[in-house]
Amino acid sequence: MNFCTSPLSPLNNQIAEIELDIPFQRVALAVIAGLLLIGLAIYGFTQWQTSDPYIRSVLSLEGQRSHGQEIFQMNCAGCHGIQADGLVGPTLHGVATRRTPASLIEQVTSGKTPPMPQFQPKPQEMADLLAYLSQV
Ligand code: HEC
Q1: Domain ranges of the chain
Q2: In which band, very low, low, confident or very high, does the pLDDT at 18 lie, cut at 50, 70 and 90?
Q3: Which residues of 116-128 are buried (b: 16+ CB within 10 A; e: fewer)?
């Protein structure tokens, strides 16, 4: 009888178990490595976003909500509604719970999502707008 190829051989069963274990560990390792890489990418992206000098200076300033509201009503309300509840543009209620301050600044200043125009507020004006957007 061929000891090594018999499916009933205890040695063969052991080998089969070992073969099963190794791929599982590899998969687990790959998943952990993947998650680490994703985490690192997100961290790197936020670091890169906040390294922009304009964004840094906006974030270092204290925004005044009432002034932000005035700026909003003059520049943004035509599309987003006087109460920021949406018109041509989407409602902005709770937008600051979904998006980081840096990404809100990017949204306002980049002009990457037409028809929303590209705005160039001074850092203090942008800080005021952020204060408004974070409580709307
Ligand atoms: C010409 C119309 C228009 C004006 C003016 C405008 N927006 Fe928008 N805005 C839009 C549209 C349309 C979108 C959706 C863009 C998309 O995601 O494709 C948008 C998206 C946004 C978003 C992202 C919303 C989300 O759910 O992620 C924010 C924040 C925003 N606008 C803020 C502002 C602010 C602040 C101003 C004034 C400084 C402004 N917008 C002026 C049309 C406008």
Answers
A1: 1-51, 53-133
A2: low
A3: beebebebebbbb
Q: Whose CA is nearest to atom 5 of ligand 1?
A: 76
Query: Which among 10-14, 26-30, 58-62 has the top mean pLDDT?
Result: 58-62
- Domain 53-133 adopts which CATH fold? Cytochrome Bc1 Complex; Chain D, domain 2 (1.10.760)
Angle made by CA atoms 130, 40, 107, in degrees to the nearest 5? 25
> Mean pLDDT over residues 88-116, rounded?
96
Give the pTM.
0.77
Q: Which residue shows structure tokens 């980049």?
A: 110
Distance 121 CA to ligand 1 centre (A): 15
Residue of 79, 105, 106, 133 with the most ligand 1 atoms within 8 Å of its CB, for mutation = 79
